[in-house]
Amino acid sequence: MELPKGFLLSTAEAAIKKPGRKDMALIYSEADAAVAGVFTTNKIKGAPVKLDIERIRSGRGRAIIANSGNANVCTGPQGMMDASEMAALCAGGLGISEELVYIASTGVIGSPLPMDRMRPAIKTLAANIGKSNLEDCARGIMTTDTFPKFGTKKIRLSGKEVRLAGVAKGSGMIHPNMATMLSFIMTDAAIDKNTLKKLLKASAEKSFNRVTVDGDTSTSDTLLIMANGLAKNVPLKEGTADYEKFRSALDSVTFELARMIARDGEGATKLIQVVVKGAKSEKDALKGAFAIAHSPLVKTAIYGNDSNWGRIMAAIGYAGIDVDESRVDIFLEKVKLVKKGRPNGKDEEANLVLRNRSEVTLTVNLNLGSSAERVLTCDLSENYVKINAEYRT
Amino acid sequence: MELPKGFLLSTAEAAIKKPGRKDMALIYSEADAAVAGVFTTNKIKGAPVKLDIERIRSGRGRAIIANSGNANVCTGPQGMMDASEMAALCAGGLGISEELVYIASTGVIGSPLPMDRMRPAIKTLAANIGKSNLEDCARGIMTTDTFPKFGTKKIRLSGKEVRLAGVAKGSGMIHPNMATMLSFIMTDAAIDKNTLKKLLKASAEKSFNRVTVDGDTSTSDTLLIMANGLAKNVPLKEGTADYEKFRSALDSVTFELARMIARDGEGATKLIQVVVKGAKSEKDALKGAFAIAHSPLVKTAIYGNDSNWGRIMAAIGYAGIDVDESRVDIFLEKVKLVKKGRPNGKDEEANLVLRNRSEVTLTVNLNLGSSAERVLTCDLSENYVKINAEYRT
To answer: Can you tell me the distance from the alpha carbon of A265 to that of A23, in angstroms, rounded to the nearest whole number?
Structure first.
């Protein structure tokens, strides 16, 4: 798995929450890169998010340093100082300006960062730059994730090979407008910062913002992209075929990462794709899909391999969208559970499908219009409760 | 526990879902009563709800017949016929007009009612009228409830003793604008139907509509009150001291029932009272309180006896309300966890409180204004998942 040109990675152990695993990661671009970001909409934001939002106005960057185990949120002026120091130490180690370093922290809220343990680890990160691969980097930012999330894509633009690579972490507090979701995308494409920003925002909308695990929106969500231009393609311009090709590649990387996040929702045993179509508007389709995807009753039923479509019906009914009960069709995969608002006698068949699959698609056709939307979520198991009841202890 | 004058109760077993328990209940008033109701806001409504909404226009009634085990929802024209037949059979047995009978069903969605088993049970209900007490009646409408929910209140109005009695059932799919929540209130107060309707609506707003278990709003929520005037008080008029006395008695009955519903949320081990105060507006206070009460992360933390206030902070942050991080205070009972947005070093003390209590109050002071609201919910345990994953099997 080749990284985009000019990108180097490293990881280190700072024992932030506990020892025994890599809990810091560094992404470094040898050349100055255009940078764009999407951040949490939560009004209470972590210090790293505040710092990044300031810095990203320049649209330029060279490095992203991230840690797991501590989110540096609700930590007051000390938190802001620690965030700045993280970036400054990293910049010092790499020999670059600290304004070009972005940071991301995830984990417990309200505890100051253990800077005494992090300072030497940041030096190690800089010293070891290039010694880690994409998977190591993905592991370095994991919290309750059960597997590392990363992906790559290669395309040709104006005769040049252009690569994209991304890492992400979930896996609880996942909700549209993101949630403790970190994702960093690297590309060697040549593209100006404004075009990059526009593409990233649209891409996040259709990927990370279509994922929900538990409806909680975190204080730390951060999605960053760095494009260093080392592929030497003709700089991308909107409306060209190359632009579309790049957009499609970026969308496939972000969607694949988002899918992994849903797949790895805390305690999840199944990935659920919820499709609402035949809606009067896209807004209705999306609200309907999220109502279903948020319903703990739907999610526990899927966990129990029970095609309890009554709960899906109820969710559509309270979604606040236009719905006519007598027109609703509901499918689990290709099995039609509900026909014109009435049971279709296929529950057992659907239960069998549920028992045999780890990924399922629920489709609701409202038969009222032509708009459709898709949302990703996961089932809700006893393990979600266990993980979150015991998280700090 | 004396019932209000002129009210008689009975219960019967129709083995609707399974045999071995009373699953039908009848409330009968010997005198014509004023009736008011509040029903689910879900756009998909059960047949019983549709029928009640039609009938309640008259503001009059004599009986309420209810069953558990089957909600008679998404059952099409057959469902409407079954609902009518339930009421008609009941009216026949009691010798009253069928227009004066209200019905309520709760349980599985999408299966036709087992009318063959229910017809004889309805006859039994009518024949045995007066043979059951309030607790029996509360048991007859239980689904996954673990204890029967009922309460009474006695007051004096214009020299007459006036009684109120109520039953309710929870316990999942509980959400504002109600949720599979049934509650029936009886009173012998003399009060006209319009005044009764106004009082009931306001009372529901501060009780049942302040309870959330899982954020799901059911298709069957029904709150009904019957006032038969047999106490012979001077008919209640707004603005009088008696009116206020009655209002306060009604509010205490509905609040107590709502509290029991939250206490008995599926799988709950703790009742959680969430108070948001110091808000700029009541709307903000309520949105903030519901954001906290809906958060699976907050609810699992409480279940784990972990005063994880970071999750409370995050919930306030995404609630979509005015919040200034540096002003927020958070309390668990009297323990101040957060002071001006920063940790107050009392987490262990709070955890001890959590370990020793089955009811806790979380208070957030936004320190931005003078509005406050209160919401009731419960913690989220593995048992919630278990109950809902296995509900139909």
So the answer is: 20
Residues 146-165 on B with a CB inside 8 Å of A are: none
What residues in A contact B312, CB-CB < 8 Å?
A: none
**Residues of chain B neighbouring A41 (CB-CB closer than 8 A):** 318
Task: For chain A, give the number of residues.
Answer: 393
Cβ–Cβ gap A173/B314 under 8 Å: yes
Asked if B31 and B229 touch (Cβ cutoff 8 Å), the reply is yes
Q: What are the structural domain ranges in chain B?
A: 7-263, 271-389
Q: Return the active site residues of A.
A: 180
From the list A169, A171, A168, A75, the residue with the least C-alpha distance to A114 is A75
Q: Which residue of B has its CA nearest to A388?
A: B300
Q: Return the sign of the alpha-carbon dihedral for residues A269, A271, A275, A276.
A: positive
With both helix axes pointing from N to C terminus, report the angle between A382-389 and B296-303 in degrees, rounded to the nearest 10.
70
The H or E element spanning position B204 is: helix B193-205
Residues 67-86 of B with CB under 8 A from A: 71, 73-76
ipTM of the predicted assembly exceeds 0.95: no
* The pLDDT value given to residue A175: 46
| Residue B13 tokens, joined | 């077993």
Q: How confident is the model at residue B365, as a pLDDT? A: 98
- The tokens describing B142, both together, are 């239980």
> Quick one: which of B9, B245, B249 has its CA closest to B153?
B249
- How far is B365 from B371, CA to CA, in rounded Å? 10
Residues 167-206 of A with CB under 8 A from B: 172-173, 175
Alpha-carbon dihedral sign for residues B361, B366, B371, B376: negative
CB-based contact, B323 to chain A, within 8 Å: yes
Which structure tokens are listed for B94? 């009691």
Q: What does residue A139 show for φ and ψ, rounded to 5 degrees?
A: -65, -35
Fold of the A271-389 domain: Ubiquitin-like (UB roll) (3.10.20)
More confident residue, A219 or A112: A112
Fold match, A7-263 / A271-389: no
| Yes or no, beta carbons of A389 and B300 under 8 Å apart | yes
CATH architecture of A7-263: 4-Layer Sandwich (3.60)
Q: What is the Cα–Cα distance from A205 to A178, expressed in whole angstroms?
A: 9
Q: Which two tokens stand for residue A40?
A: 């949490």
Cα gap B113→B272, rounded to integer Å: 36
Q: Number of C-alpha atoms within 13 angstroms, CB side, residue A254?
A: 29
User: Residue A19: exposed, middle, or buried by beta-carbon count in 10 A (0-12, 13-18, 19+)?
Assistant: exposed
Whether the CB-CB separation of A292 and B381 falls below 8 Å is answered with no
pLDDT tens track for B115-142: 999 999 999 999 999 999 999 999 999 9
Cα B280 to the center of its chain, rounded Å: 29
Question: pTM of this prediction?
Answer: 0.83
Percent of chain B with pLDDT over 90: 78
B292-322 tens-digit pLDDT: 998 888 999 999 999 989 889 989 998 999 9
